[in-house]
UniProtKB/TrEMBL annotation:
The keyword Oxidoreductase applies. InterPro entries: Ald_DH/histidinol_DH, Ald_DH_C, Ald_DH_N, Aldehyde_DH_dom. The keyword Oxidoreductase applies. This is Aldehyde dehydrogenase family protein. It comes from the Bacteria. Residues 22-468 form the Aldehyde dehydrogenase domain. Keywords: Oxidoreductase. Signal peptide: none annotated.
Length: 471
């Protein structure tokens, strides 16, 4: 049984002022595996004060100093990769394929930011103007429970490269992952106050950070509803925002797609991370002329998405993160049936042979229209829908008929045709015959999927403000 009873403020592990104790669970067994003492408003204010003090010096550091710091962070994270992977599996239920494929991205983000800095021009001349890209102030970073390490590293890399100090508020249900990550940050020997980490509830610590007058920027990954609240909190002091929010991404199978490869890829996108991924392709758009083939291909591909113990290398889909999330997903599966959708695979309840753990049967609905709630609302679990279309124009229309716009996939044997469709799809990222973008692509959404972009230059400049000096 782990007890996590410290937060990280001003370069020190300190006992929080907050006294609330929250349990930590293993979603594969439903057992309590630890307890975390949560920060409160007093801790949040102390973390902001530490970051503000550190900003006065850190914002004036040279590129070389920040590059060295970023490389130290990369090395420190690399040393703890096995611990980070183990924590994510135990606390979150992530399967081996996910932790082995995604957790190593975290140290790479620091190295990529360091490389970007080498040639980045913070001072530029435009006519008679000197344009100075300056760190905009103390940033608050708020991250969810899925892919916690990657999201935190992603935002820290851009902020530190920019010369910005940070207060991180991770999810309270990812506290074991946060503990390992914090120890890695501490081992990198950053100046005190550059990174502060306070685990607490969103309606407590999060509200302080998103309304605090000394916070200039908020970087958030999470639900659209929380993003809306952050915008309201930030409006009073005109904070800069990067919000990466929910999604209901389409995987568009054009009528010339190679279904033998496209269907397994579309399912992999939808079931990624146990179905708990904001950029998942949860709507499979299939040509009506080949609908029977698509349905048959899904049936053939489903055995590869084995559900079970996340520590077993053969497992492709693990449990969802909590009882609350399990109940939410079950609600949507029943709702889909009530709406008249037909179950192709899966359905309510746990998979056969799994009486314990928050396991969901990977579910695919057919007979779905884009007006159904299971086609419009983010479920955040392994539940996909198949929606037919007549031609490319209708595919684009259905793809865009959503309040979200984070990521989409287009599958076709004709790359030029796929590009033409991709240019019409309203999403921050549109992938052609693949389900992951490379690290230099900007990442973020449009419509209710968010504001701003992360990764590479976009992630750096999210923490910078241009200032013009004219002569």
């Amino acid at each position: 049984m782990r007890t996590i009873d410290h937060v990280y403020i001003d370069g020190q592990f300190v006992i929080p002022h907050g006294t609330e104790i929250s349990p930590l669970y293993n979603p594969a067994t439903e057992e309590v595996i630890g307890r975390v003492r949560l920060a409160d408003e007093t801790d949040a204010h102390a973390a902001v004060a530490a970051a503000k003090r550190a900003f006065a010096t850190f914002s004036r550091t040279s590129k070389e100093e920040r590059i060295a710091l970023l490389h130290r962070l990369s090395a420190s994270f690399t040393e703890r990769l096995d611990d980070l992977k183990a924590a994510m599996t135990e606390e979150y239920g992530a399967v081996r394929g996910i932790v082995d494929g995604l957790i190593p991205l975290a140290p790479g983000m620091f190295d990529a930011a360091a490389k970007l800095l080498e040639d980045y021009e913070f001072t530029r001349t435009r006519g008679t103007n000197t344009i100075v890209m300056e760190p905009l102030g103390v940033a608050a970073v708020i991250t969810p429970w899925n892919l916690s390490t990657v999201f935190i590293a992603q935002k820290l890399a851009g902020a530190i490269a920019a010369g910005t100090t940070v207060v991180v508020k991770p999810s309270e249900i990812s506290a074991i992952q946060t503990q390992v990550l914090t120890e890695a940050i501490d081992a990198a020997d950053l100046p005190p106050g550059v990174v502060n980490i306070v685990t607490g509830r969103g309606n407590v610590v999060g509200n302080v950070l998103t309304s605090h007058p000394d916070i200039a920027k908020v970087g958030f990954t999470g639900s659209t509803a929380v993003g809306q609240q952050i915008m309201r909190n930030a409006a009073e002091t005109f904070k800069r925002l990067t919000l990466e929010l929910g999604g209901k991404g389409p995987s568009i199978l054009l009528d010339d797609a190679d279904l033998a490869s496209a269907v397994p890829a579309a399912l992999a996108s939808g079931f990624l991370n146990n179905g708990q991924t904001c950029f998942a392709g949860t709507r499979i758009l299939a040509p009506r002329s080949r609908l029977d083939e698509v349905v048959e291909a899904i049936g053939k591909a489903m055995p590869a998405f084995r559900v079970g113990d996340p520590t077993d290398p053969a497992t492709a889909v693990g449990p969802v993160v909590s009882q609350q999330q399990f109940d939410r997903v079950q609600h949507y599966i029943r709702l889909g049936q009530e709406e008249g959708a037909q179950l192709l695979t899966g359905g309510p309840g746990r998979p056969e042979g799994l009486a314990k753990g928050w396991y969901v049967r990977p579910t695919v609905f057919t007979g779905v229209t884009n007006e159904m709630r299971v086609a419009r609302e983010e479920i955040f679990g392994p539940v996909l829908v198949v929606i037919p279309f007549e031609d490319d124009d209708e595919a684009v229309s259905i793809a865009n008929d959503t309040p979200y716009g984070l990521q989409a996939q287009v599958f076709s044997s004709d790359t030029e045709r796929a590009r033409g469709v991709a240019r019409q799809v309203q999403a921050g990222t549109v992938l052609i015959n693949r389900i992951f973008a490379d690290d230099e692509a900007p990442f973020g959404g449009i419509k209710q999927s968010g504001i701003g972009r992360e990764h590479h230059t976009y992630g750096l400049e999210a923490y910078l403000e241009p200032r013009a000096i004219s002569e």
